Fold this protein.
Amino acid sequence: MQSITLKAPAKINLILDIVGKRKDGYHNLRSVMQTISIFDYITLTIDGEKSEFPHISLTCTNSDIPTDKRNIAYKACRSFCKFVGVVPFDRVEINIEKHIPSGAGLAGGSTDGAAVILGLNKLCGDLMPTYELCKIGATVGADVPFCIVGGTALCEGIGEKITYLKPLPDCEILVVKPDISISTPLSYKRFDELKNPRLSDFDEFLKALENSDLHSVSRHLSNSLEDVTNERIIQDIKSEMINSGALGSIMTGSGSAVFGIFESDKKIKECADKFNGQMFCQICQPDRGKTFRSKRQDTNYYNLES
């Protein structure tokens, strides 16, 4: 019997543009994603002999999370085993200690799936480089490859094209999630109905990030899906953060979580006090990721379609 416990970090979208719709119904995105220091904890335990189809059991500290084949962590385990063919165990237990809120745009499910893929690879003796793990992740969910890599990265296509970027400068990040759910399919449908959708100043954002200019990065935060989210509370949270001294604030992903970037410990704590006890609220920092590099590549670019 062998066990391993991994941190699974949440992510935020610092900037998110929808740049087109594909024939398969998915949307092409261009987004800079950032992992942050809000973590689920994934414990994997393997036992038994070699097998092609190991038995999978999954438990979670949040009773609202499904623990069957609907769970992304469960799907990730099946995909890993299918990809490997024969794994050195016939039973695997997955326990998820849940801290990332669901339905928030924080990749709570995707990061759990990524941790399962990384953990199983480690338990199997580091069978595959990151490039291969990302290919497995892409079969499970669009955000999973980025969650495998972590840190600061440009994600394009449906998430399968990943380019490492200069890290987000040190800062304090406040994440607040109101007690509402936002339908991702409905958000994309509303976006498709826009006649002149707003795009971000992506080049200026990348320039600011390359220059480690936190103020300029924060001024250029942007999210295309925020424009079609008809929830007043999202704007109220953003306004409260800005009025409390945030350098910038936007919704992440399809919502409903909102984050603000701060320089001052005092200001962020004062802002957090205004939300504590009313909704999910946590102060965190940028998580620098695993900075893996594929042995097959001499660049920092992963195109999982190739």
Observations:
- Confidence is low (pLDDT under 50) at residues 291-301.
- Residues 101 and 108 are 7 Å apart (CA to CA).
- The radius of gyration is 19 Å.
- The domain at 172-284 is CATH 3.30.70.890 (Alpha-Beta Plaits).
